[in-house]
């Protein structure tokens, strides 16, 4: 009963006019920023942070939070229509979202994007309300050994993201690991694999990598269409209704994705990007027809979008309850709290109930506003495909360059996007999927860092990964999944040989 009263009190705070207007402004800005390729939410929050100096803490947090989860909605739109991930957490949505648009099902894909995002966010909010204390205790049980084992499981599962051979998936994952360790070593301060290029001392930017591998590579592959109208746009259906059976196929993926996002969101250093990749790997593994993935499977949108929106909500738990930001965006949120003299910690709920419960209520208000904003616009977004390619290509390229430049104010990053675009184009021609590379890039540095920390704590004893129960469970799961990957590869080869012999 106390929880219900607290939630009702939160809505009374969130519906105050000044708080509500700032929340609406944040949601709108986040949605627009998410739609524009490369316009990162981090840069947007950094620019708008000075606005919060003269605002109340509740209004400031509601606006910044609205930008954050508003970008989670908008980022998937360009994934589906243009194969350009608006945010890194949406990169995996490109794998099936864009093929659906190419088949003339852009309206159905966008509808599922909005539906899965809303449900995933709602699950994340409910988890925050009911289980925050329990989840904080679970997060405390994860040390370097557990984080290493969990992320290694994610890397092994990442091999399943490849459209074709699992061996190619593993190769791309290792390439991502190699790119991920470029830059300054966090433990020793040594610059590694930068080849004397000063701009690489901070590593390769995630936004530049994602935009190049997915967006620009696709543009280069279709550059010969410049001057002709997009053949996709002429056949795309503008109906926002999902295909028959799409919702039935998406119920379990949305449920699984919401659960994965809710759990991973509370773990510092994981966040929405890893949650979406993990959800996709799970859906492909449990599917009876995994060959559909990468060619327009609706589950490839439903699961990851539910996961990244659920994680976007629960990532506030460690930030507010422990003062531990899960990513750079949450670090800015933490800074906003400190600017207003609010010390994050376990007592934040009792000491600042208006802010805490008002923020949670604003999550629901903001997500409802996002659905109201996006559902009527689905037909308009889908009509982007009718724009002749000779206009669409340079416009999207312009926004990519501006967005990537705004992240670090560096022309070097713009050049990096072009280089990664050419690499991505070459990989497409060789039938290598870029998704495992991106996952290896995201997880690689964290795997290395947690491995070294665990060994420091155990004084070099490798047994720490087996002695701790949670870590041991992940290690056993890694071996089981690796054996399954070998078995699947051998079985698929035998099937191909049997078909070839039958035809002969």
TrEMBL record:
Origin: domain of life: Bacteria
Transmembrane found in the keyword field: yes
Residues covered by the DUF112 domain: 20-439
Protein name: DUF112 domain-containing protein
Alphabetical list of PANTHER family matching this protein: TRICARBOXYLIC TRANSPORT PROTEIN
InterPro entries: DUF112_TM
Transmembrane intervals: 20-49, 61-84, 109-140, 152-183, 203-221, 322-343, 355-375, 469-487
Organism, scientific name: Alcaligenes xylosoxydans xylosoxydans (Achromobacter xylosoxidans)
UniProt entry keywords in alphabetical sequence: Membrane, Transmembrane, Transmembrane helix
Any Pfam family the entry gives: TctA
Keyword Transmembrane recorded: yes
């Amino acid at each position: 009963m106390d929880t219900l009263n607290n939630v009702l009190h939160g809505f009374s705070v969130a519906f105050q006019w000044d708080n509500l207007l700032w929340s609406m402004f944040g949601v709108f800005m986040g949605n627009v920023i998410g739609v524009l390729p490369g316009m990162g939410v981090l840069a947007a929050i950094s620019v708008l942070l000075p606005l919060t100096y003269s605002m109340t803490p509740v209004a400031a947090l509601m606006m910044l939070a609205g930008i954050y989860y508003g970008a989670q909605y908008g980022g998937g739109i360009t994934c589906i229509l243009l194969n350009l991930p608006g945010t890194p957490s949406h990169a995996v949505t490109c794998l099936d979202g864009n093929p659906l648009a190419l088949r003339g099902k852009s309206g159905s894909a966008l509808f599922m994007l909005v539906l899965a995002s809303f449900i995933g966010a709602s699950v994340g909010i409910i988890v925050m309300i009911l289980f925050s204390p329990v989840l904080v205790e679970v997060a405390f049980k994860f040390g370097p050994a557990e984080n290493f084992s969990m992320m290694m499981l994610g890397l092994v599962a990442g091999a399943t993201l490849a459209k074709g051979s699992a061996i190619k998936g593993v190769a791309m994952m290792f390439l991502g690991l190699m790119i991920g360790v470029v830059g300054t070593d966090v433990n020793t301060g040594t610059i590694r694999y930068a080849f004397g290029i000063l701009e690489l001392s901070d590593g390769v930017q995630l936004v530049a990598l994602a935009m190049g591998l997915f967006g620009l590579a696709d543009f280069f592959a279709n550059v010969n269409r410049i001057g002709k109208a997009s053949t996709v746009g002429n056949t795309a259906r503008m109906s926002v209704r999902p295909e028959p059976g799409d919702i039935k196929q998406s119920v379990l993926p949305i449920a699984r994705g919401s659960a994965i996002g809710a759990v991973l969101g509370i773990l510092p250093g994981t966040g929405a990007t890893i949650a979406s990749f993990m959800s996709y790997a799970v859906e492909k593994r449990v599917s009876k027809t995994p060959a559909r993935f990468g060619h327009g499977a609706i589950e490839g949108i439903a699961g990851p979008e539910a996961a990244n929106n659920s994680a976007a909500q629960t990532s506030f738990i460690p930030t507010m309850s422990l003062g531990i930001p899960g990513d750079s965006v949450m670090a800015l949120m933490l800074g906003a709290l400190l600017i207003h003299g609010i010390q994050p910690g376990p007592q934040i709920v009792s000491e600042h109930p208006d802010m805490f419960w008002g923020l949670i209520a604003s999550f629901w208000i903001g997500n409802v506003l996002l659905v109201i904003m996006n559902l009527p616009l689905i037909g308009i977004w889908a009509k982007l495909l009718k724009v002749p390619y000779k206009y669409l290509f340079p416009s999207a390229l312009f926004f990519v360059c501006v967005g990537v430049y705004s992240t670090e104010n560096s022309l070097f990053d713009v050049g990096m996007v072009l280089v990664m675009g050419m690499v991505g184009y070459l990989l497409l021609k060789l039938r290598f999927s870029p998704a495992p590379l991106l996952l290896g890039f995201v997880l690689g540095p964290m795997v290395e860092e947690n491995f070294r920390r665990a060994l420091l704590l155990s004084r070099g004893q490798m047994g720490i990964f087996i002695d701790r129960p949670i870590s041991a469970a992940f290690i056993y799961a890694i071996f089981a999944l690796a054996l399954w990957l070998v078995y699947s590869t051998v079985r698929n080869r035998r099937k191909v040989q049997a078909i070839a012999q039958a035809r002969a």
